[in-house]
Amino acid sequence: MTATLAALEHWSGGLWPYLVVILFGFLPSEIWRWASVFLVRGLSEDAEILVWVRAVATALLAGVVAKLLLVPSGALAVVPVFWRWGALGAGILAFFIFRKSMLAGVIIGEAVLIGAALLAAG
Amino acid sequence: MPDDSSPSLKSPRQAALAGMKAAAGLPSFMLMASLIGVGGLCRDVGYPMGAAVASTLLVWAGPAQMVLFGSIAAGVALPLIAVAICVSSIRFVPMCMSILPLMREPAVPASDGQPARKGTPTWLMLILAHFVAVTAWVEGMRRLPGMPKPERIPYFLAFASTVMLAAAFSTGAGYYLIAKLPPALAAGLLFTSPIYFTVALAAGARQSVDWLALVLGFGAAPLVALIVPAGFDLMVGGIGMGSLAYAIHRLQQGRRRRAEGA
Fold first, then answer.
1. Is A33 contained in some domain?
2. Is residue A38 part of a domain?
3. What is each CA distance from A38 to A41, A49, B101, B143, B248, in whole angstroms?
4. pLDDT (tens digit, 9 = 90+) per residue, B187-211?
5. Mutual orientation of helices B183-204 and B26-44 as an angle, nearest 10°?
């Protein structure tokens, strides 16, 4: 495997980075998108099973958000945990106060977080 | 040519323009903010700027792109990186499966003097599927159901390709800029994904089952992360909490139906 990859890297020369993106980034993620096209064949948009599928997708994305805040990467990790959740809470609150305005939610949430990051940095 | 469409139906071009307009604001801004860091990661491993841009156009999933370049930088073997990306990308299945039926036109056999109509071709479905990622999913799930069916594909394609181009531009710019960013601003950029996804999910929640899935998925994540091995926790939490939300929804429905019947 390693030898094959080394040969491929040598052979592809300057195009190696693009080959890496295609073989090890694009293909492993794209197969799921393509598989889904065949999985939904014959399903109408109001099929009952899709209510469940959508609930799974929603719960999954909510989990992604929670994970991004629980195990933050890079610069976000510098912001204390209380303020990461506080900024999210402030954003949700602003979203509802400003009659479900996504813009208000994002701006207020960001403002709280960047403010906290500035304070944390001293 | 028979025209059974309502007069308010937009032409494909008008629907596409509406999609571009919807993309131009918050969705593009948020994607630009979250992908700017990928450019910097790509530069750190010594790859050309084009590889960063290509990753946005092809992989089209910020977290997977970060795993790709971040792991290369950490010296992880390429096949292992592919496995990690493959596992984390399973989340595209419920996303694609719920949004694609909203756009596909079913094939209609000829009847009552009406000619047979071909359904949406598979090649077009594959292209539509490629554009599915969190942003296009949350926005599409929110906006498409209220639209006449013929408008949905041009709208979605225009929306998704606009945000993709904006994100690709930002990835390329990030390749040169990211090292110079003050830390507080870098934290703010990393925070755009969680805050945007949260309010977009809340804005898209219509029925009680959406809210249940949202709250349960969010609340259970810390617990699931403790029990389930990393890499699989999101999928397990998603299926578990999504199914729980659906079960509660069905119970409520049944109770309501019984109350109406009595």
1. no
2. no
3. 5, 15, 11, 24, 29
4. 898 898 889 989 989 998 888 899 9
5. 140
Pairs across A and B, CB distance < 8 A: 303
The total number of structural domains that make up chain A: 1
Whether residue A64 and residue B197 make contact (CB cut-off 8 A), yes or no, is yes
* Interface contact flag, A17 B51, Cβ < 8 Å: yes
Whether A47 maps to a domain, the answer reads no
User: What is the distance, to the nearest Å, from the Cα of residue B259 to the centroid of all Cα atoms in its chain?
Assistant: 38
CB distance A66–B221 less than 8 Å?
yes
Separation CA A41–CA A31 (nearest Å)? 16
Which chain B residues are Cβ-neighbours of A58 within 8 angstroms?
201, 205, 210, 213-214, 217, 242, 245
Nearest one of B201, B205, B173, B165 to B189, comparing CA atoms? B173
The nearest CA of chain B is from the CA of A10 a distance in Å of 15
Closest in A28, A43, A65 to B198, CB measured: A65
Contact (CB<8Å) B195/A88: yes
pTM to 2 decimal places: 0.87
Query: Would an 8 Å CB–CB cutoff place A85 in contact with chain B?
Result: no
Q: Which of B90, B98, B246 would best serve as a mutation to test chain A binding (most A beta carbons within 10 A)?
A: B98
Domain carrying residue A101: 72-122
Whether the per-residue pLDDT at A33 is higher than 50: the answer is yes
pLDDT in tens, B25-55: 999 998 998 898 899 889 989 999 999 999 9
Is residue A94 included in any domain, yes or no?
Answer: yes
3-state SS, residue B214:
helix
